[in-house]
Amino acid sequence: MADEALTTARLRTPNAAAIAGLLFSVLLTAAFWLLRSAVPADREEPGEWLRTGADTVALAINLIPFAGVAFLWFVGVLRDRLGPMEDRFFATIFLGSGLLFLSVLFLVSTLVGGVLVAFEAKPEELIGSATFHFARAAVHTAINVYLVKMASVFMITSSTVFLYTGITPRSLAISGYALALLVLFGSYYIGGSLFVFPLWVGLVSIFIIVDDFRRRRAPAA
Predict the structure, then answer these.
(1) Which listed residue, of 107, 162, 173, 174, carries a Cα 20 to 30 Å from 121's Cα?
(2) Are 39 and 57 in contact (CB under 8 A)?
């Protein structure tokens, strides 16, 4: 009975984690959309958006911790599907880039949250101040220099693993390379390129859910 319960729990784990990957995709996409809708793209803007968009930004950064936890589940299911095929070299880069991506994402959220707290305390002094411009520049640098690179490395490493292990279709692995390059080089020129990463995670998660469903039904056929 104990062995049967353990087997059942193990069979359910990949499906639950794949759903978490979809949750990450939805939450992070929503957070990015809320930020883009509230914060002007002009980096020289003095911060007047804080008067009307602070609540929207606060909602966005409060979604990010939940997205981060869901992303960890997604990483877990990928490693679970690799099993003994997991290579130590690629596993190190794969896991490391994923954790660094989350670290930078949380750092950006902390900086933005700090701006909101400072604005609430002294709104007139913050808008247009050197402190505001420093925080905005730090967020911009963290996103466009570090966050996009870690996301790209994660996508490239994952796609390489997919390609050589065959745990996903070859087309999904190859598309991962193309999308990673779009994220890496498009962040400076294409405003919506940041949405590519969570959407790619969602695409991979959908494949895992469908594939897991087919495996469950195969013995009964």
Answers:
(1) 107
(2) yes
